[in-house]
Design the sequence.
């Protein structure tokens, strides 16, 4: 607190930080970058869904299943859209009114936004780890795609029954 005034908030030397120009700029930079993140993730989802609907064939003319990396990218993109929307685009809007720039929410909306943000970030971290494990098993240990579909997919909700991306051309 600065100078005994109980209504003034000082943060790193900036008085009344929640309503300062520096914080307003940070809010808008976050919203713009969050919007770009949502657009990029939407393109990834569109690409994965359109590729999974078109059957692919190997050299012998047999249908090939969609690579597991497409499922992982699909789920990572959904988690990113939720996290970017919750954290950056909505930003401080859900915070209780009067506590931040453009805040119009209450304690319940702030709690709900925090839960969605936490869950989406945890899912993003989980599927990022799954992608790393996929490439480790696929490239280093020479797992076949079918092995990962049967063994690895069931542990991370990546089988075809749960995502329904590959239902149009199952082998």
Sequence:
């Amino acid at each position: 607190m600065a100078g005994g005034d109980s209504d003034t908030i000082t943060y790193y030397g900036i008085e009344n930080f929640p309503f300062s120009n520096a914080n307003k700029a940070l809010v808008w930079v976050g919203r713009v970058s969050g919007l770009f993140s949502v657009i990029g993730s939407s393109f990834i989802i569109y690409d994965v869904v359109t590729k999974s609907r078109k059957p692919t064939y190997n050299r012998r003319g047999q249908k090939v299943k969609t690579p597991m990396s497409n499922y992982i990218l699909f789920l990572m993109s959904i988690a990113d859209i939720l996290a970017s929307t919750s954290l950056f685009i909505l930003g401080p809007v859900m915070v209780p009114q009067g506590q931040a720039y453009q805040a119009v929410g209450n304690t319940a909306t702030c709690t709900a936004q925090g839960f969605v943000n936490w869950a989406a970030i945890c899912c993003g971290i989980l599927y990022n780890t799954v992608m790393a494990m996929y490439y480790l098993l696929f490239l280093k240990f020479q797992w076949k795609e079918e092995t990962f579909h049967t063994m690895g997919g069931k542990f991370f909700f990546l089988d075809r029954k749960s995502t329904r991306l590959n239902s149009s051309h199952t082998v």
About this structure: Residues 107-140 form the longest helix (34 residues). Helices lie at 21-53, 68-89, 107-140, 145-155, 160-163. The longest strand covers residues 10-11.
